[in-house]
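Subject: sequence -> structure tokens, single chain

Hey, anyone have a minute? Need the predicted structure for the following. Not urgent.
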Amino acid sequence: MSRSMSKWQKLPVSLKELCIDTTLRCGQSFRWRKYDDEWRCTLHGRIVSLKQDAEFLYYKSIFPDKATIAFKEEGAAVSEGCDATDDTEALLRGYFRLQLDLGQLYEQWSRDDANFRKKAPRFSGIRILNQDAWEALICFICSSNNNISRISQMAHKLCVHYGPLLGTVDGEAFHDFPSPAALTVPSVEAHLRHLGFGYRAKYIVQTAKTLSMDRPEGWLEQLRNPACPPPGRDLPKAQEDDRAPSYKMAHEQLLLLSGVGPKVADCVALMGLGWGEAVPVDTHVWQIAVRDYKFKKIASKTFSKAVHDMVGDHFRSLWGPYAGWAQSVLFTANLKAFSDGPAAQGSERDKVTKAVVKIESQEEEEEQTARDIANKRKRKRVVKVEEDMKATVVMETQRQSKRRR
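Reply:
Had a minute. Here:
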């Protein structure tokens, strides 16, 4: 399964248009891992390695031994020294959505919003990734009451235990993300709980079953923004009676899935389905709304859909059709790990905070308590039934004894 990676190829892109050190560690994708100055991940059936300087994005890839990758567009330009069958450049252009002029978008948001204008100069080059919708869906289901470090661990465990092995690099095995069918085996939920997924294990398995058994093939991709096709693949053909997809339609359909609330639905819509206007609202975004945009504090620690929609609508009216992109810049600026700018070490952001640990432990304790109570009640019912049966036998014996006398 192991092959040497291809030689480094280069793609001209400035740090202002794409900064991978920020984009790949600001809570969008949870499977990229850094090795010295390189980032590595499995991406669309191959292992991709990236690094960057001020003028170029450098990349190389390794395919499984038996893979036959056809170039998607006949006559497409190939970088110097690149294998003509390797479509990684086209894949990366789509994955990072390099067709969009990020500098122009930053200028627009800065004109329309003084707060963005103040924060943005230290956080240039943050792009929204064009991810696989299924991977984004499962990873953001794992994000419930969680932090980036633990979500990344969960995504890694899913790949190692249920994803296909693509190869090894420097002695380390790399697995692709598992398919929905791979997560529908009866033993999966119990195994995921054993691996530390907690209550999320049930949501993952239920959602996998819904997509693989209850929805037509290609259902999730049919919710995708037609202006943002998945990199390296075509959108599935819509049926004649299908409505044209929209952000609102995609959001509402995602809410029907197990473990998906408004925030997770918007994360998937933004980063997995290409809807740039989706604005996920979590505690960080709510802090920004209250501190910088005069929203009134609320007593509840959870956000109703009405509050979520209110914040999203405000930012959509302020920033326009790519409001989710602008929000991601302020979201990153609000993370403690980036308080000193993009050069801050990712490990700082990935430390488990006391609040998250407390929430997670409370949830596990509550689950265990509920199971203990249920088992105790069950044992009481069994004991009561046994006692009733014994009493019935005694009474019947006494009646028969009286009759004989």
